[in-house]
Specification:
54% helix; 70 residues; mainly alpha; single chain; 0% strand
């Protein structure tokens, strides 16, 4: 198991779309040297290439109590 940051995912997606699956697998193995199998690296690269970045959620402040009117 490994954790992919958004920067890593963006780089792998860019290589996948520009140069193809094998190049993305090479980039993935460069960033994560613990992946030793090309088949697994290609599968992970395909999975990461299919991800969409998560949208930034707007920050909202919830009022916990209503103000008392005097």
């Amino acid at each position: 198991m490994f954790m992919v940051t958004e920067d890593d995912a963006t780089a792998i997606r860019a290589v996948f779309h520009c140069d193809g699956e094998f190049a993305a697998a090479v980039e993935l193995r460069r960033r994560f040297p613990g992946i030793g199998d090309n088949t697994q690296a290609r599968q992970c690269a395909r999975t990461i290439a299919g991800w969409t970045p998560t949208p930034d959620l707007p920050l909202t402040v919830a009022r916990l109590r209503q103000k008392k009117r005097t």
